[in-house]
Design goal:
Radius of gyration: 29 Å
Largest sheet: 5 strands, mixed, barrel
Distance between the termini: 79 Å
Structural class: alpha+beta
Shape: rod-shaped
Amino acid sequence: MTGWDWPGDPGAAWLAAALVLGIAELAVPGVFLVFLALAAAVTAAISYALAPLPLAAQLVCFALWSGVAVVVGRRWYRDYPVGGGDERLNDRGARLVGEVTRLERAIVDGHGRVAVGDGSWPASGPDLPAGTRVRIVTVRDGVVIVEEA
């Protein structure tokens, strides 16, 4: 073979498919296309080792190795789950619970405002003067429920 003949070289086509699937996994992460990329790479190796391999055999090989890769991958991620995510990442109110801050406006008749970061939130709790240090106990309907810290 003097060079790659893409239409006539199924191994090269499977390698290209593995590369495209790998890049697609990076562009749209979902931890699935990487298994298909692996199956395409194995199919390329088998196509080179057993050349000439009929197209039907290549497709069966790809399907089988895709299944094997997905089963092994699912088991791997079940046994070694990817952690480190913050379950409260998109729940701003839940992230405030436990924070100690100061009353921006006195709580009178159960209603006031607390300073949180560079903003303020409506607050509910026992009557307290402005400037009192309070701890956020919970957040309900956009109102922080506080107690004296």
